Amino acid sequence: MKDLKHLYRLEELLMDADNELVREAQAEGRKCVGNVCYQTPEVLMDLPGIFTVRLRAPRTGSLEMGTYYMTSFLCEYTRALLERAIEGGYQFLDSLITPDGCTMINRCVENMELLKVNDKPDFFYEYLEVPMKCDDNALNLYISQCRSKILEPLHEHYGVDVSDEALRKAVTEYNKICDVINAIGDYRKEDNPRITGYEFHVLCMASYVCPKDKILTILEETLEELKTREPDPKPQYRARVAVVGSEIDDIDMIKLIEESGALVVADRFCYGSLPGRKHIELNDSEDVLTQICRQYMQNSMCPRHMNLERVNGRKAYVNRIAKEYKADGIIYEQMKFCDPWAYERVTGTYVLREEYNYPVLTIDRPYAVGNSGQIRTRVQAFVESIEIKKIQEKKEA
C-alpha cells in the first residue's frame, strides 16, 4: 500500500517522550501533566492552560538504575520509567498524577518523588486511590479522588478552570480525538484492511503522548487519506489476530507480530483504542465529573476490577471484539512480572480457548521487545497453527 503521509513524522514524534509537539505546547505557556494509567482520566487533565501525556520510555536500553531501586521482580515498564526519570528524561513535566492501579507503578512514582528527579519549584505529585469494583460506592470514591487529587491541585497550583463548563469543553475536544481514532480503526474490520495494525498503533499512541489539539489535524488528514487508500490486491498476512493484555507502547511489538504473518486487527491492551478511546456521552441532568468518572469506571477493562461480573465481562468483551474485527485468533500478552495481567492472562487464555473456541497464544514479554527471535518464532508457529485449523475445518465441512 502507499505510505501514509504523516506516518514517518509520527514515528519520529514517538522516539522521544519530550517530543516536538510537547515542546511547542509548553512554549505557548501551557503546563504538562504526566499520567501513567487509564485510571487517571485524561480528559480531566486537558483543561485550559494544561495538557497531559502518558509516560513511556522510548529507546530503552539498560534498566540498571531502575532495577537497583525497584528490584528485578517488578515489571519493566515501571523500571524503565524510573530509569528514564533518573536520567533526566522527564524534566519537561510540570506535575505527575498516578493511580494505585498497581503497587509497582505507585512504587515507581514514589521513587521519582523521593529522588527529586524533577527540580521545578512548583512541581507536584498526586496519588489516586481508585476502585477495585464497579458499584455506587466505588463510583463515589472515584469521584472524590478525581476531584481532590486531580482537579483541586490543578486549580490550586496553576489556577486551572475546573468548572462544569470547562469540563464539558474538554470532553468535546476529547471526543474529537476518540471519534477520529475509532473511524480510522473501523477500517481494520474490512476483509482486506487498508490500514495495518502497526500503522494504527502509531496513530493511536500519538494521541496519548502528544497534546490532543496539536495531533488532531494530523489524525483527521490521515482519516481523509484512508478513505481513498487502496489496499494491496493480495493480502500480505496469513491470519488476523486480536492482541489483548498489558501495556504496549513499543511499536516494535506490533511490527514484529505483523512481520511474522499475523495482521493485528484489534488492540485490547493498555495504550490501545479498545476501550481506551471510548466516546464520552454527557447529559444535562448530572454534574460532569460524575458522568466522566462513571463512564471511565464502567468502560475499564483493567484486571484491577475484581468482582466476578467484571472478570467474566472482560472475556466476553474480547470475544465480542474478536468477532467484530474478524480475528482468527488471540494473542494474550503480559509484561514480565505484571501481577494483575499475569492472573488475567492465565484465566483469559483458558476461557477464550475452551469456552469461546479461539486459538490463543500467550506471551510473557519484556518492555522493549526489539527484534526478539523467540517471540517471532512463537508468533510464526501460532500463525501456522491457525492455518492448519482452517484447513481441518474445511475438510470437516
Describe the structure.
- By secondary structure, the chain is of the alpha/beta class.
- The chain has a domain of 164 residues: Rossmann fold.
- It is 50% helix and 12% strand.
- The protein is built from 14 helices and eight strands.
- The mean pLDDT is 95.
Short recap of the structure:
By secondary structure, this protein is of the alpha/beta class.
Considering the chains and any ligands shown, give keywords for the structure.
four-stranded parallel β-sheet, 397 residues, single chain, 12% strand, Rossmann fold, 14 helices, alpha/beta
Radius of gyration: 21 Å
**CATH architecture of the domain at 233-396, please?**
3-Layer(aba) Sandwich
- Tally of separate helices: 14
- Strands of the biggest beta sheet: in what spatial order? 2-1-3-4
| Low-confidence regions | none
Structural class by secondary-structure content = alpha/beta
Task: Assess the beta-strand content as a share of residues.
Answer: 5-15%
The CATH class designation of the domain at 233-396 is: Alpha Beta
**Helix amount, in percent?**
40-55%
If you average the pLDDT, what whole number results? 95
Distance between the termini: 34 Å
Q: Mind summarizing the main beta sheet?
A: 4 strands, parallel
Question: What fold name stands as the CATH topology of the domain at 233-396?
Answer: Rossmann fold
Shape: globular
Spell the H/E element sequence: HHEEHHEHEHHHHEHEHHEHEH
Q: Report the strand count.
A: 8
